[in-house]
């Protein structure tokens, strides 16, 4: 995609518009709200250029992006299922057609047979690896969007109490006593907490297979034992994930 560069006046106006969209959580771009300077409006600049080009040509749009965050993608149970409906609607309002979103891996797999491309062995795997490296932050391999995907998956499968425990542990600087787990989950005192983290590990594994988090991503919740194997004395969230989880909670409140 290429278009006429924005004039200095347009750029200034679009920067202010982009900042307002970020404040109101209008996609795309609001997931980059914490970026310094005008970095948060970068996605909006890309989107505006795409809108103008589609409007001029009255055409459908296929947008290939390695950005897996929720301000581009419609999420269903933690999975990316096409573009956000707000983006599709905005494209139509501006005179464009349909909007299609693909990751680089998906595009390569779809385009190869159509364009009669010969994929070298390992090409798809190489792209997946690059996507994971580019997306991997300094938060133990997790992003806010990935944490949200984990929470959505847990809630969908009926493990919302795990989400509550993780959130509480983050509020407590990363640790929750076993007694608090029993209170939050409304468990009988005689119930064992053995296997409590199993659904979290399984859904985290699914996110790894999807390329949402890298293989090196840290476990979100781990059990602690005071006197060796036996009843867990509590659970801990890694310090690197505490700000991500608390930021997600703050966003949910707005």
Features:
single chain, about 250 residues, mainly alpha, two-stranded parallel ribbon
Describe the model.
It is a single chain. This protein is mainly alpha-helical and 254 residues long. It contains 10 helices and 7 strands. It has helices at 8-23, 42-57, 85-93, 104-115, 123-135, 144-156, 160-171, 178-185, 198-209, 242-253, and strands at 61-64, 73-76, 79-83, 99-102, 175-177, 222-224, 234-236. The strands form 3 sheets. It has a 3-stranded antiparallel beta sheet. Strands 1-4 form a two-stranded parallel ribbon. The chain has a two-stranded antiparallel sheet with strand order 2-3. A hairpin with a 2-residue loop joins strand 2 (73-76) and strand 3. Helix 7 crosses helix 8 (178-185). The longest helix is centred in the N-terminal third of the chain and has 16 residues, at 8-23. The radius of gyration is 21 Å and the shape is elongated. The model is unreliable at 133-138 (pLDDT under 50).
């Amino acid at each position: 995609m290429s278009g006429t560069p924005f004039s200095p006046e347009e750029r200034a106006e679009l920067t202010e518009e982009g900042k307002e969209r970020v404040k109101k959580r209008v996609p795309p771009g609001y997931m980059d709200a914490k970026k310094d300077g005008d970095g948060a409006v970068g996605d909006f600049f890309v989107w505006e250029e795409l809108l103008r080009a589609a409007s001029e040509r009255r055409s459908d749009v296929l947008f290939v992006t390695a950005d897996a965050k929720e301000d581009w993608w419609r999420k269903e149970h933690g999975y990316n299922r096409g573009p956000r409906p707000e983006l599709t609607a905005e494209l139509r309002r501006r005179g464009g057609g349909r909007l299609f979103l693909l990751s680089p891996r998906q595009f390569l797999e779809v385009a190869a047979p159509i364009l009669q491309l010969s994929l070298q062995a390992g090409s798809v795997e190489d792209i997946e690896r690059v996507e994971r490296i580019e997306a991997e932050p300094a938060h133990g391999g997790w992003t806010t969007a990935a944490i949200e995907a984990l929470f959505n998956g847990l809630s969908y499968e009926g493990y919302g109490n795990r989400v509550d425990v993780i959130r509480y542990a983050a509020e407590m600087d990363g640790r929750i006593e076993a007694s608090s787990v029993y209170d939050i989950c409304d468990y009988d005192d005689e119930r064992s907490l053995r296997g409590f983290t199993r659904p979290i590990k399984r859904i985290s594994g699914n996110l790894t297979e999807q390329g949402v988090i890298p293989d090196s991503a840290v476990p979100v919740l781990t059990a602690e034992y005071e006197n060796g194997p036996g009843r867990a004395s509590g659970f801990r969230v890694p310090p690197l994930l505490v700000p991500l989880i608390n930021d997600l909670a703050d966003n949910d409140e707005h």
